[in-house]
Amino acid sequence: MRITLKTEGGLAHFPGLQQPVSVALPELPSETQSQLRKLIEECDFFNLPQRPAPPAPGAADYRTYVITVETGEKAHTVTVHEPVKDEHLRQLIQLVRSMRGSR
Asked: pTM score, two decimals?
């Protein structure tokens, strides 16, 4: 399984900090793998719509996250705007983002 996260926009847009983060689960510690798999299951990732509802009227400087999860059998990409309402999806994004410096 591979997870790729791309961040777009935001108040302080720094292109160097917005490079996609891509992690292959087999390369991660087993505890991290389990945590990622659990979050993917809890947010029902493969059944989430690909496109989000539009941002709130007047919203500006929000981040947009494009997250792709690939398994051997399928791939699914979801785009969400801040604030991310689903707690499990928000945790998934935070965990993958935290791996930017450790990869």
From this structure: 0.85
